[in-house]
């Protein structure tokens, strides 16, 4: 599945939400230091609920170290400075989706490492500055997963193993 990288994330609940996203989609989360929190942070755990054990989360000392280790097929940088909409990308399972820190986005030294057609923007209204980091990651990951046909997903509605719309009288 898709690789998600958070470059110097700052807000624990956002990373916790993305850990949960990874657990639910089979994506791998790559965290690039410095982190604005400790991985034991209470807010991070609260946002990720009990999904941490189901998510693959790796940390790196630098962006370069991460690239050298995971060697992604294609790297896409999500930025308000991008011009290609996320829905026009043809994602592949080993691609890397990179998101910047919540308060400042990806720095130019990272943005200039890819061609312009790998700088991706999620459309929003003109007066908007940016989306929440965990929302942006979810939008991107679910678009990629949709393109993969929701590989390995449970599509039918279930709640705790039982069809949740089934009338108990029908049993």
UniProtKB/TrEMBL annotation:
Stretch forming the signal peptide: none
Keyword Iron-sulfur: no
GO MF term (any one): tRNA (cytidine(34)-2'-O)-methyltransferase activity
InterPro entries, per the entry: Alpha/beta_knot_MTases, SpoU_MeTrfase, TrmL, tRNA_m1G_MTases_N
Reactions that this protein is recorded to catalyse: 5-carboxymethylaminomethyluridine(34) in tRNA(Leu) + S-adenosyl-L-methionine = 5-carboxymethylaminomethyl-2'-O-methyluridine(34) in tRNA(Leu) + S-adenosyl-L-homocysteine + H(+); cytidine(34) in tRNA + S-adenosyl-L-methionine = 2'-O-methylcytidine(34) in tRNA + S-adenosyl-L-homocysteine + H(+)
Gene Ontology CC entries for this record: cytoplasm
Subunit: Homodimer.
Protein name from the UniProt record: tRNA (cytidine(34)-2'-O)-methyltransferase
